Write a sequence for this structure.
């Protein structure tokens, strides 16, 4: 009987060694191909900003809390500023998302919103292409700029519509948000083309709280620009009809970076949007601006009452 051939023994040992190495390499390659499923890897971190008034703050809370309940890690920054401040901050990556109003945002981006919500939304989506941002579905609620006067002023000056102000504006003082004179839909260029209002004085005023109510009641201002769906409207105030159709379909939307706009994120945001009717939005806004409740608490109650998300 011949002794075992050492060369054959070495060959079998080497073959086994190469087989083990190959298996390890294949396993390593598969590790790169198989998606990581750990909770930490799947958690989406969202830096949620909010505009600087009650209605917008509670909207950002509602969207953000809904995303958090679905596993996202959400941090909030309240009262960052107007669209002119918040949108660039989101686009630059300082924040990831915030709640805005589609007509206002489309106007800011140089588009022309209409009173048709669906058409305004489609135009906004198109305008956002290439910016790195997108939006959720629009909510049914509408919140637009409104020109208000007291009943006494309306009777005395025979005011029922915004165009009636033109003949008396030079001798009147208007109270409005600080950015109003630059906003096309407030006192800016589009408003000037439609109504040509040249007031004797423009007083910057907070459209959220009781300051406007006091200013109208005491005669500090004769006219006030308030948000029809979210401001505290004085009891004695009359809303002048927008007879030139200046105000567009200004429905709430969640604005977010495209990197955050996963199917799951948009599904949650769209469910929240669908539940925000004008009545619901008005109640939430007044709970913050009039009743001085915390937007966090108000949004949480809204989500619970509507079983969201």
């Amino acid at each position: 009987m011949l002794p075992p051939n050492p060369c054959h023994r070495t060959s079998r040992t080497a073959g086994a060694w190469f087989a083990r190495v190959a298996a390890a390499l294949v396993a390593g390659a598969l590790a790169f191909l198989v998606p990581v499923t750990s909770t930490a890897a799947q958690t989406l971190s969202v830096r949620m900003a909010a505009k600087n008034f009650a209605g917008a703050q509670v909207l950002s809370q509602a969207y953000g809390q809904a995303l958090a309940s679905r596993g996202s890690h959400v941090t909030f920054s309240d009262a960052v500023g107007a669209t002119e401040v918040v949108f660039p901050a989101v686009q630059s990556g300082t924040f990831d998302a915030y709640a805005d109003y589609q007509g206002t945002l489309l106007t800011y981006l140089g588009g022309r919103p209409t009173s048709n919500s669906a058409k305004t939304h489609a135009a906004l989506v198109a305008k956002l292409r290439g910016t790195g941002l997108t939006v959720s579905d629009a909510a049914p609620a509408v919140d637009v700029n409104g020109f208000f006067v007291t009943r006494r002023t309306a009777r005395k000056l025979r005011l029922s519509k915004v165009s009636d102000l033109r003949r008396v504006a030079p001798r009147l003082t208007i109270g409005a948000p600080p950015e109003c004179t630059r906003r096309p839909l407030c006192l800016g260029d589009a408003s000037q083309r439609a109504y040509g209002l040249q007031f004797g004085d423009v007083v910057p005023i907070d459209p959220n709280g009781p300051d406007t109510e006091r200013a109208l009641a005491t005669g500090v201002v004769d006219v006030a620009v308030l948000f029809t769906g979210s401001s505290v409207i004085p009891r004695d105030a009359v809303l002048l009809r927008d007879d030139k159709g200046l105000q567009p379909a200004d429905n709430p939307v969640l604005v977010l970076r495209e990197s955050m706009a996963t199917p799951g994120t948009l599904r949650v945001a769209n469910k929240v949007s669908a539940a925000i009717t004008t009545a619901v939005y008005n109640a939430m806004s007044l709970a913050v601006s009039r009743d001085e409740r915390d937007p966090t608490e108000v949004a949480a109650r809204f989500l619970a009452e509507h079983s969201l998300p």
In short: The radius of gyration is 28 Å.
